[in-house]
Amino acid sequence: MQFRHPELLYALFLLLIPIIVHLFQLRKFKTEAFTNVAFLKKIKTQTRKSNSVKKWLVLLTRMGLLAAIVFAFAQPFIPQSDIATLPKETIIYLDNSYSMQAKGPSGQLLKTAAQDLITNLQEDQKFTLLTNNAAYRNTTVKDIRNELLQLPFTATQLSEEAVTLKAQKEFTKDPSTSKRLILISDYQEKGTPYQLPASNVLKNYIQLQPVLKNNVSIDSIYVSARKASGLELTVLLSTLEKRETNTAVSLYNGNTLLAKGTASFNDDLITSVLFTIKSEDGLEGRVVIDDPLLQFDNTLFFTINKDRPIRVLAINGGNSNYLQRIFTAPEFEYTTTTLKDLDYSKIPEANYVILNEVTDIPSSLIGVIDAFAKAGGICTIIPNSTTSPNAYNLTLQNLASLQVTAKQNEKQLVTTINYDHPIYRDVFDTRIDNFQYPSVSESYAIAGGDPILKFQDGSTFLTAQNGIYAFSGSLSQENSNFKSSPLIVPTFYNMARQSLQLPDLYMNTGVTNTYDIPLVLQDDEVITLEQSTAQENNFIPLQQSKGSRVQITTTQRPQVAGNYNVQYGTNTLQQVSYNYTRSESNLRYAQLDNDKNYHTSIKSLFDKFESSDNVQSLWKWFIIFALLFLLLEILILKFYK
Predict the structure, then answer these.
(1) CA angle at residue 462 from 457 to 468, to 5 degrees?
(2) Which range among 35-39, 246-250, 560-564 shows the weakest confidence by mean pLDDT?
(3) Which end of the chain has the smaller Cβ count within 10 Å, N or C?
(4) Exposed, middle or buried: residue 388 (CB in 10 Å: 0-12, 13-18, 19+)?
(5) pLDDT category, 578, cuts 50, 70, 90?
(6) Is residue 56 pLDDT above 80, yes or no?
(7) pTM for the full predicted model
(8) Which distant-in-sequence residues (6+ apart) come within 8 Å of 615 by Cβ?
(9) Helices marked H in 15-139 — which ranges?
(10) Within a 10 A sphere around the Cβ of 180, how many other Cβ atoms?
(11) 8 Å CB contact between 258 and 279
(12) From the centroid of its chain, how far is CA 519?
């Protein structure tokens, strides 16, 4: 038993008052003479014994009455749990990701959860609300009722680890408080563990799940073929359950309907729809389906811009026919020249420069190439077999701080590929351990840089440093069969692609995206991304001027999917598209029901809290005891003789 006001128990010292009154008799008795003394003595003895018992009974009832009143005012109670009497700190995480758009028994999961919180939380109860993109600290339901009912959906979802770390920063350091973290989500199965432990924090999980899970999602779109008549676009769609009904798919250019198709899943969970459109200078694309379960994945934005070829300049001292076959129009604008006919002013205008087996590279050209690389250009250097090690060493030292140590005259095989390097990262489906190894008869030993291709002895065949790619040997047919290797095309193709990273057909929001815009910016000029349908989504992205191009980097913005104009002053340079990631379309859920802190509704959890926080008050019983003692005293005084 515990007391709400234990300090009032000092009033029990008042029990000494009736005891003192009882022990010290303040009445004075007079002696009277009677004739029959013996009879009076007997009566007197009996009366004193009777009065003594009665006084003790009255004393006990009065002490009981006073003690009961003191206990009642001290408010005794019995707690229902060990934490019932502790101060509470409550943090609620409410998942507002797009998967919470799914319909539960009472409507959308997010809207239902918000309404249940308003219903079950006390109006004046202090708590902190965390969502995927906002925090409401030390607030009450009354203060954020409107915000709860109007919570926006977001494409990103915090992991449980991230929520736990945020919550631990919000909790106080007071060890005497009971800390409760309530996580409300649908808990999609994403391969990450749930129910992570947290020190000094009681976690409670509320899992909300939809009634239906057969969501249809537009997963991606890509150009499957380029023909003279136009482009073939393939749209991929998926569902989680077999469907007997077809789904209509519409293709728009802005607000103009271009084509319609039908997605038939049959017995498959993945299907595709093919569209053929005429080639145009630009396409502000949008693919739309009508599926009632989740809304965010019913639209996929994409952009096809006017072809902007990557400008490739080859300065040749050897055979360059293989380069001409790799860098074809319309993707590339290939220019070839000899060192003798080179116009140095054309180098800054190029995106990718190749020094193809130039025997002697003059210092003036080295200076121009160095400025080109520092401005963000990409240059590949292929040595000539007759180039002296000292001359090649001087070139590489000045351009990339690479060191040529010696010339090797032994034939070697290229056996090691750096699959993690950007030029090979997306080339291979699997990492190949045994392939048709290219061979090189003569090469230079190069130290430094980031090796991309290596010989069997571990020495470098292709390395990169500060935008400079350097081969250690000539690629002529007399020296190497690398031109006949399957590696030749992806190697040069991706080196050129790195020199001008054009935007993809579409990108995802919430992740880092980097692409280039062919433009020479002047001082204090910036590029903006603008959405014509909603100006509040316009913003200035992170940008860096690199010679003839501007590198754009986006991370947290844009937050809204759509087609955006790349705006330079009043000129629209091109368009880019952003979409929400489709990870939220997966309506498969983790199993959490083996945990004692798992709940399927907000009401059941708050009922549990109310039960555990409840205390059994005893003050009413002590009031009853006080009345009983008072009644007993009255009865004793009136009827006891």
Answers:
(1) 150
(2) 35-39
(3) C
(4) middle
(5) very high
(6) no
(7) 0.69
(8) 77, 78, 79, 80, 84, 85
(9) 16-23, 37-74, 109-120
(10) 20
(11) no
(12) 33
